[in-house]
């Protein structure tokens, strides 16, 4: 069943399609309907998920109903790490994932997660749509057998916690913070004086509710769609990392498509990219902030001067990864961020 979504700015009521797919279904044979299976651990209310659900309709329209994108959300087919493996092996055709999910195999993806690299989303878009993004897609094709389509909007990541408002790096000292399984995030927390605990995304709500960790960091849309605001008192809009959801198709699934089908898929993905960046059907950052405040959270928006204090405290984190990323990747990063 193909899921569709009218909007993601309504009351958060996550849903999913939990039926099991038969595996990767791409076929380029003439006259046959081609079914591609997409899966994510994220909620339909998340910006990038909503964009892919609309992409299913776009693809059906472009292909005259001869291409179907079957979408499974909310971890119905597994969480992120398992889905990355499945897409790489071809048992699922399409996924999106965070850069952190790829860093164990392709350490160059650490470039995306280096903290406080961008002052605005527009700077991040240029970074991902340019030489760095193309370089990462090439590596993924070669090393994992996944063809990169687009870097979907997921948002700028922000801190939340239950101890105190965060307005400076000093406020981070001593906090127990959840993070993804990424050494970049662990080192960022260390630079800020906090301690990091790796907890799976699907277990995070309960971990915060039970006090296993004081807080976490995620884009505002994720804090909303996963209801983290229910178990967090303080939210700080610091925008420490721009976190795309990276849309992939298994390389063999892509190769089985005709050139016309590939073109339709790429066109639908490009439209999903633009819609995600335009927050089509979703709330704006200010609307998320207003919602959190109305639901009892204290939201702090850092001034440019406060933001710079965090940037200064973490400015050398990238040096910890120079060897694993390699000279080519570091040079691309420094050039793209104006630090060369």
What does this structure look like?
- This protein is of the alpha/beta class and 340 residues long.
- It contains 14 helices and 11 strands.
- It has helices spanning 47-62, 80-89, 110-113, 121-129, 131-144, 183-192, 204-209, 220-225, 251-256, 259-277, 285-294, 304-313, 322-325, 327-336; strands at residues 34-39, 67-72, 94-97, 146-152, 157-161, 176-179, 195-198, 215-219, 234-237, 245-250, 298-301.
- The strands form 3 sheets. Strands 2-1-3-10-4 form a 5-stranded mixed beta sheet, sandwiched between helices.
- Helix 1 packs antiparallel against helix 10.
- It is globular, with a radius of gyration of 20 Å.
- It starts with 33 loop residues before the first strand and ends with a helix.
- Mean pLDDT is 90; it is low at 1-22.
What is this structure's SSE topology?
Blueprint: E1 34-39, H1 47-62, E2 67-72, H2 80-89, E3 94-97, H3 110-113, H4 121-129, H5 131-144, E4 146-152, E5 157-161, E6 176-179, H6 183-192, E7 195-198, H7 204-209, E8 215-219, H8 220-225, E9 234-237, E10 245-250, H9 251-256, H10 259-277, H11 285-294, E11 298-301, H12 304-313, H13 322-325, H14 327-336
Parallel strand pairs: 1-2, 1-3, 6-7, 9-11
Antiparallel strand pairs: 3-10, 4-10, 5-8, 5-9
Helix pairs in contact: 1-10
């Amino acid at each position: 069943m193909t899921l569709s979504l009218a909007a993601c700015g309504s009351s958060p009521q996550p849903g999913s399609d939990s039926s099991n797919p038969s595996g990767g279904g791409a076929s380029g044979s003439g006259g046959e309907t081609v079914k591609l299976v997409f899966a994510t651990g994220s909620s339909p209310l998340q910006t990038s998920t909503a964009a892919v659900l609309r992409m299913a309709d776009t693809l059906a329209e472009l292909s005259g109903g001869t291409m179907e994108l079957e979408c499974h959300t909310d971890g119905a087919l597994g969480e992120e790490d398992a889905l990355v493996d499945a897409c790489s092996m071809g048992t699922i055709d399409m996924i999106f994932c965070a850069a952190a999910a790829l860093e164990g195999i392709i350490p160059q993806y650490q470039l995306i997660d280096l903290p406080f690299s961008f002052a605005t989303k527009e700077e991040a878009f240029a970074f991902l749509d340019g030489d760095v993004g193309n370089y990462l897609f090439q590596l993924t094709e070669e090393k994992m057998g996944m063809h990169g389509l687009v870097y979907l909007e997921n948002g700028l990541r922000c801190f939340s916690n239950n101890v105190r408002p965060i307005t400076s790096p000093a406020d981070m000292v001593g906090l127990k913070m959840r993070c993804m399984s990424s050494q970049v995030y662990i080192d960022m927390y260390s630079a800020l004086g906090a301690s990091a605990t790796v907890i799976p995304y699907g277990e995070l709500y309960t971990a915060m509710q039970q006090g296993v960790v004081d807080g976490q960091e995620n884009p505002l849309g994720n804090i909303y769609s996963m209801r983290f605001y229910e178990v967090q008192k303080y939210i700080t809009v610091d925008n420490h990392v721009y976190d795309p959801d990276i849309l992939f198709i298994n390389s063999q699934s892509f190769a089985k498509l005709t050139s016309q089908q590939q073109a339709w898929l790429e066109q639908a993905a490009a439209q999903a990219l633009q819609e995600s960046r335009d927050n089509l059907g979703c709330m704006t950052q200010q609307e998320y902030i207003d919602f959190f405040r109305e639901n009892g959270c204290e939201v702090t928006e850092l001034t440019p001067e406060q933001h710079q204090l965090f940037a200064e405290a973490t400015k050398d984190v990238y040096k910890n990864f120079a060897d694993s990323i390699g000279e080519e990747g570091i040079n691309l990063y420094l050039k793209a961020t104006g630090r060369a």
